[in-house]
Amino acid sequence: MRRDSIFYKLFQQSPTLLFELLTNPPTNAKGYRFDSVAVKEPKFEIDGVFLPPENAGAGVVYFCEVQFQKDEQLYERVFAESSLYFYRNHDRFSDWQVVIIYPSRSTEQSQIHPHRSLLNGGQVHRIYLDELGDIRTLPLWVALMVLTTVTEEQAPEQARYLLTKTRQEVSSSTSRAIIEMITTIMVYKFEQLSRTEVESMLGITLKETRVYREIKEEGREEGREEGREEGREEATVNLVMRLLTKRFGELTPEMRSAIASLPLPALEDLSEALLDFTSVADLQSWLAGR
Q1: Same domain for 1 and 112?
Q2: Which residues, 6+ apart, have CB-to-CB distance to 73 below 8 Å?
Q3: CATH for 63
Q4: 124 shares a domain with 241
Q5: Same domain, 235 and 124
Q6: 131, 165, 188: which is the final residue of a domain?
Q7: 67-113: pLDDT as tens digits
Q8: Closest among 24, 36, 7 to 60, alpha carbons compared
Q9: What is the pTM of this model?
Q10: Among 131, 159, 185, which residue terminates a domain?
Q11: Fewer Cβ atoms within 10 A, N terminus or C terminus of the chain?
């Protein structure tokens, strides 16, 4: 299930959603905008950054990380990214905070002692979605986040409840965005089901919704990308074979098979390394090292 893209869309639709999870949100939370930024030297990609209003002077920048898989170096990376970004933009912000969203405590990295000062000092907020309470008692946008964590057995009933609540309580312009998010979550959660089966599960028609069109296009693009990657790999294999054959004559079937099985990055390394080879023995040694 592609939770990163789901949460990215949630924050795009409702930037204030992050602050609904915090005990002490900033007073100007409604003025924040959601963005992603790159920090160079070394280059870090920070997917979730909440920037304070530009007309309010130096404010607090919030970094958000959605972590649904265990990463034993998450805190090292997040704190390095956040500190470096704050260092390079210290004139723009008065402070920085980090919000890390987990499905449950079991997903958190094991070694947290080296980070005890940050984790226990009020600058880092750890949110465990399974501890937020019954999905039916939560604000709608927060409930959508929790929907990504419920079991497949519970998800259909909870999704239908949220669809009904959305139609009853939310204006038409906003309700469309929420319904799109619910269907996105369910389509990704039940990727093995057909469109008709998901429609039947939710009691809605997906065929003409934006989410269905986007997912179909996403599938086509992934297929095109895989095709381009496969084509590039095949072309690199052929080039390496031609260069080696030209230098050392016909290669043995074992060598050809070993080269053909190399991943693209290794093939590209070989295309450069072979320029320094003086004999087939150099090639054999290089392959053995792989």
Answers
A1: yes
A2: 109
A3: 3.40.1350
A4: no
A5: no
A6: 131
A7: 998 999 999 999 999 999 999 898 899 999 999 999 999 999 999 99
A8: 24
A9: 0.62
A10: 131
A11: C
| Domain presence at residue 195 | no
CA angle 266, 268, 271 (to 5 degrees): 110
Residue 31 lies in a domain: yes
Q: Give tens-digit pLDDT for 123-161.
A: 999 999 999 999 999 999 999 999 999 999 999 999 999
Q: Which residue has the tokens 């997912």?
A: 215
Within 10 A of 280 (CB to CB), how many other CB atoms are there? 15
If asked whether residues 3 and 116 sit together in one domain, one would say yes
Residue type for 109, please?
Answer: Q
The count of structural domains within the chain is 2
Q: What is the distance between the alpha carbons of residues 232 and 226, in angstroms, rounded to a whole number? A: 10
85 part of a folded domain: yes
Residues 6 or more apart whose Cβ sits within 8 Å of residue 63: 46, 48, 49, 50, 78, 81, 82, 85, 96, 97, 98, 99
281: domain range?
215-289
Please tell me the total number of residues recorded for the chain in this structure: 290
Cβ–Cβ < 8 Å for 50, 62? yes
Q: For residue range 251-286, what is the model confidence (pLDDT) as tens digits?
A: 888 888 888 888 888 888 887 777 667 778 888 888
What are the tens digits of pLDDT across the range 45-75?
777 899 998 877 789 999 999 999 899 999 9
The answer to whether position 11 is within a domain reads yes
Residue 181 has pLDDT above 50, yes or no: yes
Per residue in 196-235, pLDDT (tens digit) is 787 788 887 765 455 555 555 555 555 555 445 556 678 7
Long-range contacts of 149-155 (CB under 8 A, 24+ apart): 149/103, 149/104, 152/189, 152/190, 155/186, 155/189, 155/190
Instruction: Reduce the secondary structure of 7-73 to three states and give it as a string.
Output: HHHHHHHCCCHHHHCCCCCCCCHHHCEEEEEEECCCCEEEEEEEECCHHHCCEEEEEEEECCCCCCC
Comparing 2 with 240, which gets the higher pLDDT? 240
